[in-house]
């Protein structure tokens, strides 16, 4: 029971911090703001994270770690390349919709992460980009997609992630439907002529 409460409090703190960092900015958000948003005392906040930057690091990396894991699982499975692309695209768009505040914080505040955490964050971004590259390269290797390059990979990632600027969870289209539209466009461009 106590373990579940700690997990719930940590999740509540991460969610509140992401919302505050996304709306006010990381530097403009103080520990007092986090106390008010969560109802936790300062010592409770420090129980979960030793400082505000550690909290920022967790916010900017959690969703990426999950997506890299999903991508590796899909790459390990024997799946037709276009289906793998669609499945990963759908997972990414679902994450964008569900983790909108975290994604906003990542884009706006990743430069605020310093030291070893900055290197770990950059490595994670490279791992995430590598998953997309491998998904596309697997399709090329199977002869289903045309050859792709770094610009193609960056374009596909940008298509998905910059949707955070206009995607709203309560919108008319589901994240999966938007992902399917992206994939239709991508697959049309990757299909050998």
UniProtKB/TrEMBL annotation:
The keyword Protein transport appears for this protein: no
Ranges where the HTH tetR-type domain occurs: 7-67
SUPFAM superfamilies registered for this protein in UniProt: Homeodomain-like, Tetracyclin repressor-like, C-terminal domain
UniProt keywords, alphabetically: DNA-binding, Repressor, Transcription, Transcription regulation
Xref: Gene3D superfamilies: Homeodomain-like, Tetracycline Repressor, domain 2
DNA-binding region: 30-49
Keyword Ubl conjugation: no
InterPro entries assigned: Homeodomain-like_sf, HTH-type_TetR-like_transc_reg, HTH_TetR, KstR2_TetR_C, Tet_transcr_reg_TetR-rel_C_sf
PROSITE patterns recorded: HTH_TETR_2
PANTHER family the UniProt entry points to: HTH-TYPE TRANSCRIPTIONAL REGULATOR RUTR, HTH-TYPE TRANSCRIPTIONAL REPRESSOR KSTR2
Protein name, as recorded: TetR/AcrR family transcriptional regulator
């Amino acid at each position: 029971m106590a373990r579940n409460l700690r997990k719930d409090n940590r999740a509540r703190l991460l969610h509140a911090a992401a919302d505050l960092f996304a709306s006010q900015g990381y530097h403009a958000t103080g520990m007092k703001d986090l106390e008010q948003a969560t109802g936790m005392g300062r010592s409770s906040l420090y129980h979960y994270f030793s400082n505000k930057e550690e909290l920022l690091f967790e916010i900017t990396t959690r969703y990426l770690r999950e997506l890299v894991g999903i991508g590796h699982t899909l790459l390990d499975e024997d799946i037709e390349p276009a289906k793998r692309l669609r499945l990963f695209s759908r997972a990414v768009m679902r994450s964008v919709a569900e983790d909108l505040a975290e994604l906003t914080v990542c884009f706006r505040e990743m430069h605020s992460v310093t030291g070893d955490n900055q290197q770990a964050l950059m490595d994670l971004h490279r791992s995430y980009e590598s998953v997309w590259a491998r998904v596309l390269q697997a399709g090329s290797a199977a002869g289903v997609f045309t050859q792709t390059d770094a610009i193609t990979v960056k374009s596909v990632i940008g298509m998905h992630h910059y949707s955070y600027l206009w995607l709203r969870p309560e919108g008319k289209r589901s994240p999966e439907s938007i992902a399917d539209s992206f994939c239709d466009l991508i697959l049309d461009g990757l299909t050998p002529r």
